[in-house]
Structures are given as structure tokens and as C-alpha cells.
Amino acid sequence: MTMRTTLDVLQSVRVPIVAIVLALSASGRAVAADATTGMIVGRVVGAQGRAPVPGTEIVAASAAGRYRARGGSDGRFTLVGVTPDTYTVTISANGFAPLIVAALTVPPGASVRVDAALVPSLREIGRVGARPAPDGVEFERTEDVFHVGGERARGLAAASSSGLGTYTQGTVQAAVAAVPGVQQDQFANVILQGGKVQDTVFSFDGVPVPQALIAEPGGNVVGAQLATTGTRWTTVTTGGFSGSSNQGLSGVIDQIPATGGFPAVTTVEIGTGVSTNARSVEVESRWATPTLRQRYALDVRAANEQIAYGDGHTFYPAEAGTYGLALAHRATWSAAGNAHVRVRRDDLSVSLLAGAAAYDQYATPFAGQTYGAFDGANGSYPGEPSPAAAVTTPSRVRGTYAVEKIADLRSYDHATMSLQLYGSQYGAHTAAPYFDDLSFPSGVVSYFGGQNSALFGAGLDVQNVASERHELRYGGDLRRQTSLIDQLVPTFDEHVTAQPVLGSYLAYASDRWTPSTGRSLTATLRATGTRVVRSDGNRYSVSALDPHLGFNLRLSGTLGVFASFDRTTQAPNPLETERNDAAAPARFAPLAPESGTTYEAALEQQGLLRARITYFAKSETNLVDVLPADFRSALAAGTRPSGVGIPTNAGSLRVRGLEFALSGGALTVSATYLRGMSSSAAQFGYSNLNAPAVAAGHRFPLGYAPDLSAVASYAARIGARITVTPSLSYQSGYPYGNGTKVWIFDPHTGRPAHVPNDNYVNRGYNYCFLRDPAKPYDAATNPYIGTLGTPEGDDPNTLRSTPRLLASLHVRAGLGRKAALVVDIVNLFADAAPTAYQGNPYLIGPPGYGGGDPAYAAAYGKAYNGAYALGNGVPTNDGRTPAVPWRYGTAGYVPSSYPNARAVTMRLQVQR
């Protein structure tokens, strides 16, 4: 969606009959979600506003770029390939007074329109100020696109809708936390319009970065938290978008780097933690030749910090395994740089990003822990000196990422052509003597493994605005992605490997037709295809042709509406196409692409106060769920599916919601409300609830996003040098709960059945407790003797945690002309504390059960091939000895949330 603003210029006292009407509008839009430059287009007419003024000269200048164009005989002009920045535009013609448009902001991927009416030449110069885009969320008008600019694009002080402000600081998650349509789950993963984490594509300077789930043990913790080093803009495209070489079922988040300018600016920033142990240093330098034919930028950052949750020094180690979040310390570095050289019509550029981080977990190792406690029957933890050796190193996750791009942007009078060659990589390695995988009866496990992925590609994009009524964009992209995973779980002698290669192409063509001022229609077709080659020699191909339609209507000078339809097809992820488990081999099954359809409609008000409300409806089908290998054949035969789970196309997702954005002066407000249903009971992992529910056509409430989240901030100036920005973030509460019923395959008929969730059907993770869990329910002989006692519905995720309102504070104080002190306080009032877990997987009896009941001991002993004598809530690997030296308590459910403890950091910035 593009920003449209109309500024009426008052008469000058020196020129009483002047009729200068300047319409600043962005009636173009970000056709390509990964577009990294913008355009300035417009038409110049005479004082009466009708006759075109031919031969005008238009010059746009800023510290980062200078662009010149000459208008045609029809008064039209186009400045193409414009580096995103704030410009002064001068429009001049023989016989007319020059007109200067000051502070015109050109976001990445946008076409900003300047329609000007000139007056006869007098001694005075017509001048008008255009309100620049704020350093915050800026939205466009024909597509659901948001721009985060300036300081907020760095993500150093943005309020986090998940409450994990310190954990996300300096990452893309923090940069987009206040964007409408963006929500974050309990672990700060970005959720766009209710889709899954993997539905969102992250890219840097238009180059996609391969991702692995942060939630998976050993997952890509670093790549999922791309640093904002060197970033000037972050563009968020949610829902439909008309043409792009990057696409995702939920959208694309692209970080646009800052480029060099003249005069040169170098900033040194040193940060320290006041309430937590944190140290950081960053050096950013941007320079250029006086003619701006050569521009350079470099930004390097290093940091070491304690990540303080809850009370600031403890956390719940149970979350360390499946979710990979219980991280106590982080050491990281990142570097970004780019160089641009202009040779006649060509802008040749090189962009680089690289980074690495290491995370240590809370509470490991604990006293007395030995490697042998987590060995399997046939294997041991890699590198252990002996089974009796004490663990002396913490569980540690390490990761790296890198992006490289070479590009040539050629500019013509009314068109640009961009050719780029690029590569991106991530790597992750985990050595964890202790992981708790939160599943009964697995207990505590050890983990060792790594994964990586490398993507290389070439793309061509063309933009042509030669016609006043038609704006054409077309292009294509070729990619090759190699991936590797090698995971070992010594506790269970489990070894998982995969090494698929995916080759893909994308081609798109888009036309934006503008029959008259204030009306436009966009139509796009995208053709995609992917060739999957597995390491076992199996291979197959998938392809699709996807349409997009978008309609834009201006109702008045500042009020407009838009509606769009978008269909997106996404090939299977590399680690979905292949997963080889040595302990449980599965047969090969090709996967079809996932597909999604999004409808959006918005009403927006532009001007000094900008507001927009958007309704969206999302439907995804053919989603990949992990189901029994014989799922389809067993259902066709009327038998019960069984066997190891493999990725299978069977899932679906339905989401409805509203986005709201308000920006005016120092105030910004954003909010997202959504309700959704998914075939997957949980966002991550392999849930045994999914297969029978999918067979029954049932969908569960979304279990990873609150119904409502909102962020508001106000930047108040105190004097000339101090700005105080308080912010509030609100969440209605995360969904949680096990549900009073579960879906199973009836053991007699093989058909899906909805039955009470008791500890006969679902041991260890249940709602109802039988007198004898070894026998099925019988009202007379084996009644229920207890429940969790919460007002829960049939499905999981029907409860909501307590709503949370978090306050943060950002203060910037100028210290002279070239220095500033920045103070950030997260969880200002320290009134929020973490909760332990979504459900207690070790709840083997009614709340308060202390162990010793013969019926319970016998029933749960079967899971361990022996007697179970432990009390309620005791993690174990063998049913007889505790695996860790703590108890999880006797509560049935504790909703999951992890706000930061109050954290105070200071940063000193010095500029030269």
C-alpha cells in the first residue's frame, strides 16, 4: 500500500495570484517485496492546472544520491533507481518560477508521485515542505506493505509484543514488533497474519536467508534472529503482493542497508548494561565522493550480554529442549557493508552481511550430572571422556550466517533494469549434554548435531513507466539451495540425517493500470517451479502459476480504499523433503507445494494524521504435517494408520483478522487482532493429535499467537536536546491447555474418534484422571476421580493466559552537536514474571498426587518396563530415578510466557 498525501500550498504574500498546487502521492507501490530502490514520478502543469509544461528539469538531491531528469512534452517525468532517503526536489522550467519540494521521503520499493503546478517566473521561488516519513512504521496504499525506518529499523529500542525486549534487541524481530499484522509467539518468533513461522521469508538487501526453526533443538537461533547491523529500512509485506522474486505464504521481511553519502559520517557507539551484564560496541561509517559516483558504507557490531528473564537470574530449564529458548548468555558479532560505483547509466554495487553468535543455556550443567546418564543402549555422547565423567560444559548453541550480492542497476529515462548475483548461508551447531524435550515418557535427553544451508541465485528485474497509464514490472530468478542436517540424540540412539538439493525458478509479470487520477488496478502472474533431489536418489518436481489482483480507489483528497486478492504457492522446505531416521526408517513420499489464498480490504486516512484499518482473511491448504507413513493408504483401506511419522501434505489453516495503524506527530499506535484454526495442534514438533484430527477434517485453535496484540509509543521532546519515548505493549494472553477431549484412531474400527482426554488414552499429558489408569473409563467401576479443574474446551489451546501490559522507556539526550546518550529500559515497572510451561507433561496423576498408588505405579511403569514409584511432576528417564534435581510442582497448567526482567542499558553515541 502506498502513502498518498496532498499538501495545499498557501499563497505567498509576495506573489498574491500564485496557484501552486502540489499533490504528493505514492500512487505507485512496492510491486516487488524485495525492491531496494524507489522512484519519483509526476507531471508538471501550468498555473491553471491543465496545460502541461514541457522540457522541465527535475533534480532530487540528498546526502545519499542525486538524480536528474527532464520532463517530456506531456509534462511527465520519472526519476528511477532512487536510493531510499529524504530528498529535496527542485522543479524548474523556462518562464516559470522554480518550485522546491523539501523533505520528500522515498521508501524502498515505492513510487512517490509529485504533481506540480508552476506559476510564471517572478523573483521569488515557490517552495513547499513535504512531511517526511517518520522514523517509525510507514505504510503504503495499494499493497499491504509497511516500512520501518531510521532508528527503529535497528531494533535497539522497539517494544517487543512478546515481552522479550532484550532477547530480540538489535534483531529483525525487534524492528518489526510494532508493525500491524506482525505478532510474536512466546519465543519471539515472528508471526505474520497468523501463519506459521516458516511461512515468512527473511531477506537482506533482497537476498533471502535460509531458515531453520529456532524452536528445534540445534535450530538456527542466529539466522532466525538476523542482526539489524547496517540496516536503514525494514520492509514488511504481509498478505498479498503483486510480484516478487521472494515469496512466502505469510509474507516477506526485507532489511534494506544504509548506503554511503557526502559529507561522510562516522558514528561510534558504546553500550553497557546497568541492571544486567551487557557490553556492546558498534562502529558505523558512511562516506562518498563529492559527486556521489562512489558511495561506501560499513557497520560492525560486537556484543556480549546476559539475557535476563523473569526475576533476572533464573529460568525454567524445561524450555531448553523443544523450544531452545532458555538461553542465559549470548556473545555475538555482525558486520555489514556495501559499495556503489556509478558508471554512466549503471550503478554497480556489492553488498555483504556476516555474523555469528553463541548461546549458553540456563541451569546447565547441574551438580552431579554425568555424561553416562544420557547415553543410549548402543551409543554415547560424542566426546565424553567416560560415562562417569562429570559434565563441566554448558549446553551451547552456535550459529553463523552470511549474505553476498553483486548487482548492476541500469537506469533509462523511464525504466530500470536490475541484474543481481547472490548467495546466502546459515550454519548451526549444538552440543547439549542436557536437553529436556518436554515429552512423556522421554524425559531428559542429550543432543549433538548441526545443520546448514547455502543458497545461490541470479535474478533480473525490469520496471518500465514509459506510459502514463501503465507501469510494467517483470523479471525472473533462478536458485539452487543445498541443505544438510546431522543430528544425534545419544539417549535414544537416534540419528537423523538429510542432504537434499532444491533447484527453483520464479518468473513474474505485473501491470499497474491507472485509468484516471485516484484509481488503479494491478494484475500480476507469477510462475514458480522447484526440482527436489534427495540424497537417496529420489527426485520430483512441483510447479504453479499464481495470480494477484489489487484495486485502489481514492475517495477524497486524503481518504482511500484498497482491496486485493493473492494466491501464493510455496515449495516444501528442504528439511521437509527429506528426513532420514536411522532408528525408524520411512519410505519415500513426494510432497506437493503448500498454497495460500489471502483477501485484504483496507480503509485509510492520510494527511497529518494517518490511519488505516485492514481486514484480512487467509486460507492455506496442502500444508505439511508429520503423519504416519501409511496415513492415506490406511484411511482408504479403513484401517488404523501406524508407523513412523513422515512429512505429508494434509494440513490446512484458516485465519481472519484486523490490522490497525495510527501515526500522527509524535504518536504511533499499531494493533493486530486475529482468530484462526489449524490442522496442527502445535506450531512445532510431531503431535500425535494431528493424524486422527486431519482424518476427521478437524482443525485446532491456533496455539502460538494471542488474539490481540498492540504497541503504542509517544515521542515527547523536552527542550532542544532530550527526547523521551515511553511505549506500552499489550497482549490479550497466549492460548494454552490440553483440552478435555482428544482425537484418536479407534482401536477397533480404525476410524478417527473424539474421546475424553484421560490418563488411559493419553498418559502423561491429560485432563481427566481415572481411578485406575490401566483401564478405560467406566462410570461404575472406573470413574474419573479428578480433573484439572479449569474451564477448558474440548480442544487444546482453548484457555488464555493472563493479559499483559508491559511498559518500556527510550530516552535520547544530546550531548553537544555530535554526541548523544541513549537509555533504554525494558519492563519499566518490573511487574511481569515468567510462567513455566504450557502444560505439565509429567502430570501422571491428579494435581497433588505424590506417588505410591499401586494402580498408577503399574500403569505408568509399563512406559518404562518397570515400576514407577516417583511422585507427580518428576522428570525421569527410567521411571525410578529423577533425571534432574528439581520438581516441576503439582499444578495442572501454567500458561507459557517469558517476559524480560527489568533491564536498563545505556549507549553513548559519538559522531564525526
Automatic annotation (TrEMBL):
- Regions that span the bilayer: none
Family matches, as Gene3D superfamilies: Carboxypeptidase-like, regulatory domain, TonB-dependent receptor, beta-barrel domain
Q: What is its main location?
A: membrane
- Per the record, the domain of life is Bacteria
A GO MF label = carbohydrate binding
> Do the record's keywords include Membrane?
yes
Annotated Gene Ontology cellular components are: cell outer membrane
The entry's keywords: Cell outer membrane, Membrane, Signal
- Name where it's found: Cell outer membrane
Task: From the UniProt annotation, give the residues forming the signal peptide.
Answer: 1-32
Q: What is this protein's record name?
A: TonB-dependent receptor-like beta-barrel domain-containing protein
- Name the source organism: Vulcanimicrobium alpinum
